Amino acid sequence: MGEVLPLRFGLSGYNRRTRCHGHFDTHPTPMQYVTWMKTRFRFVFLFASVMTLGGCAGSGDSGTWGWYVISPSTTQGMTNIQFLLGGLKDTIVLSLVSIALAMVLGFLIALPGIASNRTARAINVTYVELVRAVPLLVLILWVYYGLPQVAGMSISIFLASVLALGISDSAFQAEIFRAGIQSIQRGQIEAADALGLKYSQKMRLIILPQAIKVILPPLGNQFVYMLKMSSLASVIGMQELTRRANELVVTEYRPLEIYTFLILEYLVLILIVSAGVRWLERKMQTEER
Asked: Is the entire prediction scored with pTM above 0.70?
């Protein structure tokens, strides 16, 4: 048996270092992973507590904090909290639909990138480079205000947000899919050719089942990215977390407290999603063993 060394805390959490044949196993155990997540949530709770105490101490006439605006102990504060949390559903739904669209477009754009035809590869490179060069905020504004004039049809705020977010992220998704597919050993593809499988059969039965293990972790990180970038949809009136915070600031004029609460909303949401992504990565690494 290997020699179990003491726990250490690093950027990736608590790791068990086990010396065995001159190597170290740094994969956290389930209990250590739970401890790591508790540490993160304790930090969030501590941060919220400090902000609350600071607000209580400075809520007088001479203070700079006014937590009464989002205090659950008052009717006004509870109403404001419910209003802010009401944007959580739109944020999650917008992110899920946008990431689904980005995955579909990204996969379709990735296929020409792995083709042997130069024209097909040129299409892939042109799309990726052009889309990545356009700032997301500019794309959102163009889709919502410019596309209706070009297409001669009205576009809802939700549809414009989904299209802009999905198209912008599809360029990154295309590179993820391309890299994942190209990571498959050449011998697997040659074996499929020897069996006489069609291109669609090779993709469905041989390549994608293996590539998905490489692709899934980056896709999870892109979903975290999508959750944060969905806040830009607030500029065209999408009623997500950031938009609701902006509207409440206009009525209450307490930007410090309201935007602090908004940060905590995103922080908790991203931590939960990040925990799911890490769990998925750990599960896939275990299955590969």
From this structure: yes
